[in-house]
């Protein structure tokens, strides 16, 4: 299936109740372990997309046959409302599968699940799954925890809308956890 799994029926379609999505990135408490970086395209290009090949330079732990995640460091994230450091933001770029070694420190890899297109300097780290299943069934009543939006799909994005991803701080009142439903409101006088 693609992003939305459905079954065609006469006269319309029937939703199976969930969709698979690819998360746009991660906000982590600690910096990721860097195994290497993208050097460029197989033929010297600067950006590569799905089903194309990249050359990666290895610092440690990269081997032929391995699958890795390509991330782009987007900087530290601060909670603009509550204050304080939230974590380090890494935007998901692509998944790569190493095809063969070119030398002791360079490898050729296939690009898949490209979100942003790989470019020189992107970080190679251990494989991190970015596919999530979101249940479309009516959720529970909204959570009572208070939390702030700390980021959107792209690092420089200031506003979100229907269909956008948001990054939410841990919050208060028991905190935020996976699977919870939230009503999102703009605070008067603030850009969120």
Helix-strand blueprint:
Elements: E1 4-9, E2 12-22, E3 25-28, E4 36-41, E5 47-48, E6 53-58, E7 67-78, E8 85-101, E9 106-112, E10 118-119, E11 123-126, E12 131-135, E13 149-152, E14 166-168
Antiparallel strand pairs: 1-2, 2-12, 3-8, 4-6, 4-11, 5-10, 6-9, 7-8, 7-11, 8-9, 13-14
Description:
The chain is an all-beta fold and 192 residues long. The protein is built from no helices and 14 strands. It has strands at residues 4-9, 12-22, 25-28, 36-41, 47-48, 53-58, 67-78, 85-101, 106-112, 118-119, 123-126, 131-135, 149-152, 166-168. The chain has a 6-stranded antiparallel barrel with strand order 4-6-9-8-7-11. It has a 3-stranded antiparallel beta sheet with strand order 1-2-12, with no helix packed on it. Strands 5-10 form a two-stranded antiparallel ribbon. The two termini are 34 Å apart. The model is unreliable at 1-10 (pLDDT under 50).
